[in-house]
Design goal:
This protein has 398 residues and is an alpha/beta fold. Helices cover 19% and strands 31% of the residues.
């Protein structure tokens, strides 16, 4: 009897969940440039698009992933079977010492499209204001559900990140695109598209002044700084920081989308900074790659990149609370990485290495160099993801 009552309560609670009502009747197809096609049904915006097909192993925080500017131009395949069950929150916050104007990682959805095995028809969460389907529609982003995401993921894992086409509605009746028709976002300077066009300030009365080069910053990077009482000045990615560097106590280089090779201008300017400036410098993801390129390292395109909140990295050196020899679980989203040179450039040493593929996950200046520079490929400030390495982002503020 008690068990029946529990079942009824559970069924009632699901019945009270808000209907997403995405309208699943419209056909949709994902075409890959490598020749495979996957048929499903459409949700979100009823439009067809091209993009770069990638997969993420994240099991939660789909809203943070989709608003991360590093996913710009990408067709994002979620390996988790069901996506959308807790809906989407209102994405507004104050501009103060605790927040930076948004709850998520940017104002809008950044990925080109989303592919899921099963999009939730209902959502239930106390902060949710709309479904994943309606959110995608509002931001003009198409989605496909009802496809075998495991098969897609295995293809991408084996053959690498692949250009794709999301065809919606009557476009599904057309033949798959020819090779020359696929759009490759890596050929464009996506950083220039997404970076701020003019400097702006956050928490101007903060006790420490930090300049941020914006390559496509997640909001949580800026949020983490202002919550620690930093006065933050956000600059365009190619801004001449050297002309104003004496005004600041440190420099932060953010994450961003695409090929770091398009940002050589920033790397060359940073090289001058590294040679002439002795204050702390920290970089995350794209920022880490720019630091590496400025130091003389090369960046390369990985087969399928690392995307997810479960990437293990091994610390090769100690800094702050990070201890050499320990493995940390991290949140990542990148297609490019720094090459592990032997020997490493003078004055530099590897900081972290990926336990799965041995790619470079961090570099740092040596103690003998007299510099205070760190870069990590992963996101120590999470959102979403684990907090194992949260202290890394505080090293430069110590």
């Amino acid at each position: 009897m008690f068990a029946r009552q529990l079942i009824r309560i559970h069924q009632l609670s699901r019945g009270l969940a808000t209907h997403a009502n995405p309208g699943f009747a419209t056909p949709a197809t994902l075409h890959l440039k490598s020749g495979q096609s996957f048929k499903g049904t459409s949700f979100g915006a009823p439009k067809s698009i091209y993009g770069e097909t990638v997969f993420s192993t994240s099991i939660t925080s789909y809203t943070e992933s989709m608003t991360d500017p590093s996913y710009r131009g990408q067709i994002l395949v979620f390996t988790t079977p069901m996506i959308g069950n807790y809906g989407v929150p209102a994405n507004t916050a104050p501009f103060d010492s605790k927040d930076v104007g948004v709850i998520l990682e940017s104002q809008g959805v950044q990925c080109a499209a989303v592919i899921v095995g099963d999009v939730a028809e209902k959502f239930s969460h106390y902060t949710a204001v709309q479904s994943l389907a309606s959110w995608c529609k509002n931001h003009n982003v198409p989605g496909i559900t009802g496809v075998d995401t495991r098969a897609i993921t295995r293809l991408l894992r084996d053959q690498g990140t692949t250009l794709g086409r999301v065809a919606i509605g009557t476009d599904t009746l057309l033949p798959a695109p020819q090779d020359h028709e696929y759009w490759d976002p890596s050929l464009e300077n996506l950083v220039d598209q997404i970076s701020t066009k003019a400097p702006y300030q956050l928490n101007p009365t903060g006790s420490i002044k930090i300049a941020v080069l914006d390559f496509g910053a997640k909001a949580n990077i800026l949020r983490s700084l202002v919550r620690r009482d930093a006065a933050v000045t956000v600059l365009p990615w190619n801004y001449d920081f050297n002309s104003i560097r004496d005004q600041f106590d440190g420099l932060f280089l953010t994450n961003g989308p695409g090929d770091p090779g398009h940002c050589m201008e920033a790397a060359l300017k940073l090289r001058q900074t590294l040679e002439e400036w002795d204050k702390p410098i920290f970089g995350i993801c794209m920022g880490h790659q720019i630091i590496g390129m400025a130091a003389g390292l090369d960046a390369y395109r990985m087969t399928f990149g690392n995307r997810g909140h479960n990437q293990p990295v091994l610390a090769l050196a100690s800094a702050g609370s990070i201890k050499a020899g320990r493995v940390y679980v991290t949140s990542q989203n990148h297609q490019y990485a720094l090459k592990l040179h032997d020997p490493f450039p003078q004055g530099w040493e590897p900081f972290f290495i990926n336990c799965n593929d041995s790619s470079v996950e961090g570099i740092k200046s040596t103690v003998d160099s007299g510099k205070k520079v760190w870069g990590v490929q992963f996101h120590p400030e999470s959102a979403g993801g684990p907090l194992d390495t949260i202290e890394v982002s505080l090293i430069s503020l110590d």
